[in-house]
Amino acid sequence: MRWSQAFIPTLRESPADAEAVSHKLLVRSGFIRQLGAGSYTMLPLGQRVRLKIAGIIRDEINAIGGQEMMLPTLHPAEIWRKSDRYELMGDNLFKLQDRKGGDLVLGMTEEEIFAMLATELFSYRDLPQIWYQMHTKFRDEPRPKSGLLRVREFTMKDSYTLDIDAPGLDSGFDKHYDAYKRIFARMGLEAVDVQASSGAMGGKESSEFMVRSNAGEDWIVTCETCDYRANVEKATSALDEVDDGDPGALERFPTPGLRTIRALAEAHPEIASPERQIKTLVYIVDDEPVLVLLRGDHELQEQKLADETAAVMSRPGQVDEIRELLGADPGSLGAVAVDGPRIIADHALQGRVNMTTGANEDDWHYQGVSVERDIPVTKWADLRAVTSGERCIRDGELLELWKGIEVGHIFKLGTKFSEAFGAYVQDEDGISHPIIMGSYGIGLERGMAAIVEANNDENGIIWPVSVAPFEVLITVVRPDDEATMASANRLYDDFDSAGVEVLLDDRAERPGVKFADSELIGIPFRVTVGPKGVDAGVAEVAHRRGMVKSELPLDEVVATLSETVAAARFGI
Predict the structure, then answer these.
(1) Helix, strand, or coil (residue 308)
(2) Same fold, 31-73+108-235+401-453 and 463-568
(3) How many CB atoms lie within 10 A of CB 48?
(4) Interstrand relation of 472-476 and 525-529 (parallel, antiparallel or unpaired)
(5) Domain boundaries defined on the chain
(6) In CATH terms, is domain 463-568 a member of 3.40.50.800?
(7) Would you tell me the crossing angle of helices 482-497 and 557-568 to the nearest 10 degrees?
(8) How many angstroms separate the CA atoms of 502 and 491, rounded?
(9) What mean pLDDT comes out for the span 98-111?
(10) 333, 280 Cβ separation under 8 angstroms
(11) What is Dmax (Cα atoms) for the chain?
(12) pLDDT, tens only, 256-306
């Protein structure tokens, strides 16, 4: 491709609303353009990168036995109602009606449709199967932002394993795990797998693949000395032992104007330090009020509550709902002798005595609370959010909390969807079993953004060879010089013949503009051809990573770079 004939609309300034580095650079370098909130056009350079990512994914999923399909994105709503996810997905699911009033949705994932296809399997001899597609998905994000990192329309590779038993599911899960490690390595990403919540997907186990980045929206907990890694939605930590002494008597005492953990601790430090308080929260879980209890110095991780209750909808209670339920405003709430609502308490409160909590009357609290004696806990659960500096549950060492971009997620779904849609097969004894499914996703455009977040400098993008829009850029310093242009054209033709993807910058622009554009768009290798070099029989070769430069004889440039490019195509 010749730059003079290409559509590469580079910009000197970043978009005013861009915060993430990838958003700024992908727009500035002419890879993407925004159509609307959370909706982006892939310009020619962006599409070349996207197709490279798709090719890597396709290679690796095919290698584990994947069979590619293409499913519809427009689904009858009844299908999602049948799986109970029409309401579960909430406002994130695009819902619409056709001209006849029929309810439809735009698919954000395809478990339902693949489960329906699985009803055409009848025997254990038909299994295992690995089916996949790369297709457009839709998600009605409330706050699209950060360019390609949070969008409403995106391409996902979603694959599905179909097996007759748990060992088969484990095998398919492990195959995808290994394939994902290879995929991300080939994309130039240092992705680590972490324990994750399965959320609305359901299933007993899932792992996310995370790339460390301040542009990410997920918080990850890792141990400095062992292999413990978990999303904060799933993470837990070791608790220090607390000596509460002997249980005391339950006593009610006045606390006028004290409505926060901090205020109560400052007013009564001898009995109400934060770790000696019980925080009582009211949540409405599928229209049912639930009391959630945590230690006063801990925060609720809402996803843990949602997972524990298998809630379709969960939200904090409003002040009027709380007063109607408990008779007091937030700040004076407690669960002592409460009868009626479910009470879910965090494990950190188990066995605690001599605690302080609200008395369900404004400006009054209890002291001497023995949790298991005075509070009718319905269920104990891990509800608290882990913070940096806590201790690992495996080896007791310090935990680190860092931000990451989720680039892939793999789930052991189990039989939820096969049972809903009647996907059963017979075993060798003729007994019917629901097909056990796994689900495995990678967002292509998010992967592109993650690559840029991890591979850039102050001048622009640094694409790994494996996903670069072109592998070599020939920059012609004086395209009006006949000898210079002739040498550049020979290099261009020779690179093309050698199977190297090459872009020839033949524009009538100043050298400084061309060099700035070359570093901005991030092609891995740049060959600079100018009159002085041609006269001397050499060209300058620059590696974009580190901008290491050297001179090579003109007749050695193609052979040398072709070999370097070929070696780098499967990683950086």
Answers:
(1) helix
(2) no
(3) 17
(4) parallel
(5) 31-73+108-235+401-453, 251-381, 463-568
(6) yes
(7) 40
(8) 9
(9) 96
(10) yes
(11) 98
(12) 999 999 999 999 999 999 999 999 999 999 999 999 999 999 999 999 999
Alpha carbons 374 and 293: distance in angstroms, whole number? 13
Written as six digits, the tokens of 428 are 């060798």
Q: How many CB atoms lie within 10 A of CB 62?
A: 14
Q: In what order do the strands lie in the sheet with 278-285?
A: 314-316, 278-285, 288-295, 342-346, 379-381
Distance separating alpha carbons of residues 326 and 255, to the nearest angstrom:
17
pLDDT tens by residue, 377-388 = 999 999 999 998
Residue 114's SS3 state is helix
Q: pLDDT, tens digit, for every residue of 292-319?
A: 999 999 999 999 999 899 887 889 999 9
* For range 551-556, the mean pLDDT: 96
Burial of residue 111 (number of CB atoms within 10 Å: 0-12, 13-18, 19+)? buried
Phi-psi category of residue 532: left, alpha or beta, with phi > 0 → left and psi -120 to 50 → alpha: alpha
Range 31-73+108-235+401-453: architecture per CATH? 2-Layer Sandwich (3.30)
**Full 3-state SS string of 477-518:** CCCCCHHHHHHHHHHHHHHHHCCCCEEEECCCCCHHHHHHHH
Which pair of structure tokens corresponds to residue 211? Answer: 């790339």
- Determine the Cα angle at 521 with ends 516 and 525, to 5°: 85
> For position 457, what pLDDT does the model report?
97
User: Under CATH, which architecture does the 251-381 domain have?
Assistant: Alpha-Beta Complex (3.90)
Helical spans, DSSP H, in 366-481? 371-374, 416-421, 444-454
- Please state the rounded mean pLDDT for residues 38-62: 98
The neighbour count for residue 552, using CB atoms within 10 Å, is 18
> What integer pLDDT is reported at residue 202 of this predicted model?
55
- Reading the block at residue 118, the tokens are 């699985």
pLDDT band, residue 164 (cuts 50/70/90)? very high
In the predicted structure, residue 566 carries a pLDDT above the cut 80: yes
